Prior knowledge:
Elements: E1 2-9, H1 15-23, H2 31-36, E2 43-48, E3 54-59, H3 67-74, E4 79-85, H4 92-104, E5 109-114, H5 123-134, E6 144-146, H6 155-168, E7 179-181, E8 184-188, E9 192-199, E10 204-205, E11 209-213, E12 219-228, E13 231-233, E14 235-236, E15 240-247, E16 259-261, E17 268-278, E18 291-296, E19 299-309, E20 312-322, E21 328-332, E22 339-347, H7 358-366, H8 375-382, E23 384-386, H9 387-392, E24 405-408, E25 411-414, H10 415-435, E26 442-443, H11 444-452, H12 479-490, E27 493-495, E28 498-500, H13 512-524, H14 532-537, H15 542-550, E29 555-557, E30 561-563, H16 567-575, E31 582-583, H17 584-591, H18 595-608, E32 611-613, E33 618-621
Parallel strand pairs: 1-3, 1-4, 4-5, 5-6
Antiparallel strand pairs: 2-3, 7-16, 8-9, 9-15, 10-14, 11-12, 11-16, 12-13, 12-15, 17-20, 17-22, 18-19, 18-21, 19-20, 21-22, 23-25, 24-25, 26-28, 27-28, 29-30, 31-33, 32-33
Helix pairs in contact: 3-4, 10-12, 17-18
Amino acid sequence: MSQVIATAGHVDHGKSTLVRALTGIEPDRLAEERRRGLTIELGFAGTTLPSGREIAFVDVPGHERFLATMLTGLGPAPLVCFVVAADGGWSAQSSDHRDAIAALGLDQGLLVITRTDLAPDRTLEVTARAREELAGTGLADVPAVAVSARTGEGMETLREVLDEVVAGARTPDETADVRLWVDRSFSLPGAGTVVTGTLGAGTLRVGDELDLVGAGQARRTTVRALQSGGEDAEQLGPVRRTAVNLRGAEAGSIHRGDALLTPGAWDLIGVVDARVDVRGALDDLGAAPAELVAHAGTAAVPVRLRPLGGPHARLTLDRPLPLRCGDRIVLRGSGEHPLLGGALVLDVDPPVLTRRGDAARRAAALAGIGADGDAAGIILRHGAVPSGRLVRQGVRLPDPLPEGIARAGDLLVDREAQVAWSRRLAELVDAEHTARPLSAGLPLKAALDALAARRDDARTGTRAGTAGPATPPLPAALGPALLPSLLRAASLVERDGRLVDPVRAGGLGQAEAAITRLEERMRATPFAAPEAEELAALGLGPEQLAAAARQERILRLPGEVVLLPAAAALAMRELARLEQPFTASTARQALGTTRRVAIPLLEHLDRRGWTRRVDAGRREIVR
């Protein structure tokens, strides 16, 4: 079992010294850090606990100037070691780091009072103050240990408590989709590009293909090698510090805040609706600056905040990130209180807000949504949603399904919308038959386009906090998959790419008498196709002839050659008597017809496989 723990606490309270004492590894990697005795960048060190459990520390800077770096280290870590020095007590950055922990929703870890050798009489006082300050956060009830890294007092107890904290931590999902937030990238001679990050869930294997996403275009990469704690591995599971050697990516093109993702498992999200927990002096979300920085994982992205009402807001990111419902975002501004608070992502595909009152209605809807998202609301808003899309968005699907929601293959469909779409489809087909009685039916594309269009005369409503038509347009991409069920409900059928009402599609209407006369005439002379003048005199235009052909009353050949359906078989009887092979001229004479009729008829027989060409000028019967 392995785990990753991030440090937190005021500058110069002994975080790096504590990590060094626990692991024997210097977490300050930069010469400037060691010279100044000040952590500037993230530091990393690991050790094995008495139980054999492995832990890795992410040591974060405590100075206020490096708040963004601190959030980068703290964001992906599931556990936190909050450090307060006995001789320094609770300090300014202690509050900033506490607010960051609250914003991230971190609720696993421990409190460590350090440098007890410098103020042995203040240990209880400082512990009590720290408990008071951490009340209301996820660390309110974590165990506390007092230590001196210099003298070693309390260090064995600390290792035992760390063991207990790691043992009691939530078990990560080894089968989850991978989202490895990158905190470092570099190139090694002979190895190439390496990125590091905290693997919080999922499993990485050598040979895996991963999507690398960041500020530029997403790229497909391959895992060339894996390391954790300096040891090579064929696969790594959570939770651990992970180094990934990549093939197909240049180190210079990868930056902190990029992410390695399971291909096809994550949507890149640019707009979210969230519940914001403001911290510090700011107690009204409406007074928050519109321009902020959003910290998610190791990414820091400019964001615009639009208050919706109460604690809810719409966040528009400067670039899309791989986010899901339930993710936590830290919102950072500037000035005396740079940390605004934390945002819990509730919806990663929110509705457009354009009408007066939309924001307030949306806020009311969001009030009833939790970290699992709102599956029913999303389905009602869109009418139909692929279940895989909800999974990618981090939305939990209730079991059993909510009332009014049904499955249609891989789709989840709002029954009310399905009924409305079927009814609309029936109206469209009925209108087609009424306007054009001999129509072959409504073209499928026209029908789907009409269902996908938002109707101006649709009734309006606010189901599940949405704005606009209560029955949403049929999602264009889902139309073909939903069509069979819509046709069944509307008692319609599809024929050759057209939608037909079988009750109204039969018969030729006013053209029936003319087709009957034509049939009678051609029975006596089956290869004497009527000329255009004769067809016009009978009132038979393209629409009437097409309808008769669909009902197999006539055989309609190119060039508006009209014969009886039996003409092909009758022609074969005559052609079989000829010496094989035969020419088109010979066939024309045998059939007693014109070239206008003979050529398209012979080509029709070729297409049916009854005759075949021997060379450029001759054919033969296929026996």
